[in-house]
Amino acid sequence: MNWKRAFWMLAAVNAAVLMAIAVWLFQPSPPVKQPARLDVKGATFTVYSKKAHLNAVINDYLAEKTKHHPLQYRVWLADRVYVSSEIPILGRPVELVVSFVPKVVKGGNVELTEPTISLGDWKLPVTYVLRYLQKHAPLPDEVAIDPEHARVYVALTDIRFGNGYQVAAKKMDLAADEIVFTLTIPTKQHQ
User: Fold this and answer.
1) Which helix (H) or strand (E) element contains residue 164?
2) Would you call 52 exposed, middle or buried from its count of C-beta atoms within 10 A (0-12, 13-18, 19+)?
3) What b/e sequence results for 172-187 when a residue is b if at least 16 CB atoms lie within 10 Å of its CB, and e otherwise?
4) Per the structure, how many domains does the chain have?
């Protein structure tokens, strides 16, 4: 074999290899599969909490909503849901305490039932006090008092926290200190 023939064979092999590489490099790539678009209003997370953490969040929210009203109150979760305020009677503050049993209702809202009400050491009639609170307490729009059925309805799903965050209750077992809810964070684009 002479060198000219070997040179042209090597040049042909090199050209074939270069063409194969060029064809491989410039081949169209398969399309990237994107996740299906879901029709959701945001990202939803399941949150497990304890009474102490929820007490802090509830009272921060209430302090903001009622900061300019003379009747202040606080809420805490223990064996029941407690609402406490001081009412001036004959120039002295007397503690009014209302307690309820919470129940998660359809849609993630909460109904507070089986109320007990005390003013200082006295037990008070539930319907009368609930009527008074319905008329005079600075309640958020998401809380509705139903004196006739001795209950309070809390529309958790209507409450919007900072940046539009929304919560919905899933489970409230105060005895076991298990509180489960979903937190929906709105997104600017639907996924």
Assistant:
1) none
2) exposed
3) beeeeeebebbebeee
4) 1
Q: What is the pLDDT of residue 189?
A: 63
pLDDT at 111 over 60: yes
Specify if 148 maps to a domain. Answer: yes
Q: What is the mean pLDDT of residues 182-188?
A: 85
Structural domain of 63 = 51-161
This model's pTM is above 0.85? no
Rounded to whole angstroms, the Cα distance separating 152 from 75 reads 13
What are the backbone dihedrals phi and psi of residue 5, each rounded to the nearest 5 degrees, phi first? -65, -40
Residue 38: per-residue pLDDT: 46
At 147, give phi and psi (nearest 5°).
Answer: -65, -35
Q: Which residue has the tokens 């076991």?
A: 176
Listed in sequence order, the residues at least 6 apart from 5 whose beta carbon sits closer than 8 Å to its beta carbon are none
Can you give the pLDDT at residue 179? Answer: 93
pLDDT at 191 over 50: no
Beta strands in the chain (DSSP E): 42-49, 73-77, 81-89, 92-105, 109-119, 122-123, 143-146, 151-154, 166-173, 178-186
Between CA 154 and CA 157 the distance in angstroms is: 9
Residue 76 lies in a domain: yes
- Between 36 and 170, where is the model more confident? 170
